[in-house]
Amino acid sequence: MSKPLEFDICVIGAGAAGLSIAAGASQLGARTALIEAGEMGGDCLNVGCVPSKALLAAAKAAHSGAEAAKFGITYTKPEVDFAGVMAHVKDVIAGIAPVDSQERFEGLGVTVIREWARFVDKDRVVAGEQEITAKRFVIATGSKPMVPPIEGLADVPFLTNETLFDLQEQPEHLIVMGGGPIGCELSQAFARLGTQVSIVEMASLLPKDDPEAADVVRQSLRKDGVFLHEGAKVTRVSSPVESPFKNGGVTVEVERQDGATEQLQGSHLLVAAGRTPSIQGLDLEKAGVEFHRAGVKVDAGLRTSNRKIYAVGDVAGGPQFTHVASYHASLFIRSFLFRLPARTDYSALPWVTYSDPELAHVGLTEKMADDQGLTVQVLRWPFAENDRAQSERQTAGLLKAITTPKGRILGCTIVGAHAGEAIYPWVLALHKKLSVKDMVGMIAPYPTFGEVTKRATGSYYTPKLFSERTKWLVRLLLKLG
C-alpha cells in the first residue's frame, strides 16, 4: 500500500451532499478528498430526481393532446417512440453530468478517488490500495431501493429506480409495488406514455400527505387509467406458467384487508417500497460508528458516535430528499470550517410529489396538529376559484393552510398546478415564523396560480371583516361624513 494521503476533509460518496461539501470545502481552502466508486452525481442525477422528472416531462408532452380538447383544439393520438423517450432521459442526464463530473471537481482542487471506501480504524480509510487520513470524515453514501422480503421476489426479474431508466422496450403492463411519491410519479408517467399500470399499496396512496390533497392525486391517476389497489399487501411473486406477455411477465399475489386474495399479471414489476441506507462494506464498526436499520446514528449536528466522523444525506436516517442532502452539506461547512453552531431543523422542510397535479407540503398537516393536541384554524382556497387556473383549465386542487387561532402559520399543503413553485412563500413563512398578517399584506400579481396564497390568508380575516360589529363600525363612520 502506498504512502497515506492526508486531508482536512475526506468525503465518502459523490451524491448531492458529498458533492456540495467537497466543492464548498475545497474552494474555501480545505484539503479535500472525494471517494466514489460508482457514478458521479449519485442517485439524484443518474437514477433519481433528474431522470424521473425528464420522464414526467415526456409523459406530459404525450398527454397534452388529450388535454387540448378543453380549448377547442384536437390532435391525433400521439405515437410514442419509447426508445426515443429514454434517449431524451439519458440526454438530460448527460447535459447535467459535467457539473458533477470528476474533471470539474479536480479543477476545483478536490482529490477524486474512484474506489470503494472502508474504514480500517477510527481515523483511517482505505480506498482500493490507497490509505487516507483526515481531520474529519463525512459519510455521504446515500440510500438504495429497499427490496421487501416477499416470497418469490428474489426469483423473478423486477425493476427499481436503479434499473428502470435502462428500459428500451415499453412495458405492456407495469405493476408498481408502492404508492408513495416515487410510485405515483412513475405510474402516471408510464400510464400517459401508453402503458397499462397497476399500483399496489399496503396503506393508502401518499400516506404521509394530507388525505384530502392525496385524494386529488388519486383521482388524477384514475383518470389517466392507473388501476389502484390500496389497503392491499403483496404476499407472493412468481413467474406465470402461461403469460400473454412476450417477455414472460410476472404474477403478483395480493391480499386485501378483508382477507380476499387476487392475482395480478403484468409484463414488468417495479419495486418502489421505500429506501434503505447504503452502509454495506464501509466497516463502520471498525470506526466506532453506530448505526441502525434507518441509517447512521447522528446527533442534531450530524456527528456520529465517532466525533471525527459526520453522516449527511439519506444515509443519516432522516428525511430522504436531495434538498435535505444539500442542507446537511451547508450545516457541515458551517460547523467544521467556520466553527459556528449548526443543528438540523426540519420545521420548515418542504417536499413535493411531481404528479399532475403536483402535491407540495411544508410544516404541519391538519392530522399532525391534531396528534399534537393543538387547536388550529384551517384556511382553504380551491384552485377552481383561481382565475389563472380557470383560464388554463387546471382547476383541480386546493391550498390548505394550518394556523393557530391567533394566525401564526404552522403548515401548508398545496395540491394543484405548479404547487411545487407555489409552496415557496409558505416555506419562507415557516422559516421566519411569520403570521397570516405578514402574508395577507403582500401584493400578488394577477392572474397567477400563486394568488391562492393571497386568497387563503385573506380568508382568515373574512369572519371578522364582515361581522355585524364591523358593519356597525362602518355605519358609524359613514354618519360622521
From TrEMBL:
Required co-factors: FAD
| InterPro entries in UniProt | FAD/NAD-bd_sf (IPR036188), FAD/NAD-binding_dom (IPR023753), FAD/NAD-linked_Rdtase_dimer_sf (IPR016156), Pyr_nuc-diS_OxRdtase (IPR001100), Pyr_nucl-diS_OxRdtase_dimer (IPR004099), Pyr_OxRdtase_I_AS (IPR012999)
Q: Which organism is it from?
A: Limibacillus halophilus
Keyword tRNA processing in record: no
Residue sites binding NAD(+) per the record: G178, G179, G180, P181, I182, G183, C184, E185, E201, G274
Please list the residue ranges annotated as the Pyridine nucleotide-disulphide oxidoreductase dimerisation domain.
350-456
Q: How is the cofactor bound?
A: Binds 1 FAD per subunit.
* Keywords assigned: Disulfide bond, FAD, Flavoprotein, NAD, NADP, Nucleotide-binding, Oxidoreductase, Pyruvate, Redox-active center
Q: Name one Pfam family in it.
A: Pyr_redox_2
Instruction: Please spell out the taxonomic lineage of the organism that makes this protein.
Output: Bacteria, Pseudomonadati, Pseudomonadota, Alphaproteobacteria, Rhodospirillales
Keyword Disulfide bond on this protein? yes
Name of the protein: Pyruvate/2-oxoglutarate dehydrogenase complex dihydrolipoamide dehydrogenase (E3) component
| Residues in FAD/NAD(P)-binding domain copies | 7-329
Give all cystine bridges in this chain. Answer: C44-C49
Annotated Gene Ontology MF terms?
flavin adenine dinucleotide binding; NAD(P)H dehydrogenase (quinone) activity; oxidoreductase activity, acting on a sulfur group of donors, NAD(P) as acceptor
Chain sites annotated for binding FAD: K53, T141, G142, S143, D314
Gene3D superfamilies hit by this protein: 3.30.390.30, FAD/NAD(P)-binding domain
Q: Which family does it belong to?
A: Belongs to the class-I pyridine nucleotide-disulfide oxidoreductase family.
